[in-house]
Amino acid sequence: MHSVVSAALPETMAVSDSQWKIPVVTRLESDISADHQFFPLWNDIFPCPACGEIFQKPHILEQHQTLKHAVSEHIDGDSGNNIVPVVTRLESDISADHQFFPLRNDIFPCPACGEIFQKPHSLEQHQTLKHAVSELIDGDSGNNMVRIIFKTDWIDTEKTPKIHRILKIHNSTKIFGRFEEDREHVKSKAARHSGVRRRDERCIADGNELLRFHCSTFLGNLGQNGNSGLCNHQYCSICGIIRSGFSQKLDGISTLSTSWRAHATIPDDIEDEFRFMNVKRVMLVCRVVAGRMGSDQDDVDKEDDGFDSIVGRTAIGSGGGSLTRMTDDKELLVFNPRSVLPCFVIVYSV
Fold first, then answer.
1. What is the pTM of this model?
2. 3-state SS, residue 323
3. Does an H or E element contain 341, and which?
4. Helices (H), 44-172
5. What is the pLDDT of residues 313-340, one digit of tens each?
6. What is the C-alpha to C-alpha distance for residues 144 and 17, in angstroms, rounded to an integer?
7. What does the alpha-carbon distance between residue 312 and residue 323 come to, in Å, rounded to a whole number?
8. N or C: which end of the chain has fewer CB within 10 A?
9. Among 107, 105, 96, which residue's Cα sits nearest to residue 59?
10. Distance between CA atoms of residues 265 and 11, nearest Å
């Protein structure tokens, strides 16, 4: 019997004749597990290979690894051998088993500020309100390009504009999607009527897209000192346009070929008259899907599906401090507000 016990035990635990004889378990653990289903055995525990914490079920270990060790990291100064193990099951698989379990693929961080959101539309709304614009600093290629476009064809030599800052607009996916949908609508409509006029070829290609100016006003300090958020003031035109697009209630959106002509559509004294509201003049540089363009000699109506915009209207502008009547054959009135996509904001004064 002694020889049987000694052979069954490890060398460090072998017993002599003077010691008590220790009986050996001759049945396999699987047999004991069958008789004692609640008996804790080594094949019934699951240690975490990263931190050593013990779990009784494999899915609990997977949950622990997902939360605590979801990303592999190299320890500073290490050659790469000491790595925190990653979860071997896909998070989507665990999500299928635990639909209310918070996982990394169920959160949406803001790339600008890092704030976490649980739904994508909440993230998009946050980006639209808090990170709507970003300033193009001096020396930036985009800044130089917009500055040149703005100052080109400014014909008033006595009142030269002073640019305070140039902002790039980060349009929401909803507004940008509407713009692209309208372009495709214009292209398909022009294709159905191809051959009628030569200029429809441009409509088939890109919807007859143009670069135009639209002058308006804003309140507050948009883009000043790194402020990229929009205000909620009901009289702030620019913030309303960036947030929701141009109003559907208008007969059309007035866009002009040069910044000076767009500037002339707003009276010179508007900033002095509404100084108590901190009103400032601002210029929008817009992409415009002009589509098929009619003229003021044509019998064009907004509801007429034959034309998408109209040119050659008589506009009222300001010159030399007094209102003057001028015929502006370069004004373009776009019927569909979704066809006008603001891209840059120029805060300036004259």
1. 0.64
2. strand
3. strand 340-349
4. 58-68, 91-97, 120-130, 141-151
5. 544 443 433 333 333 457 899 999 999 9
6. 97
7. 19
8. N
9. 96
10. 99
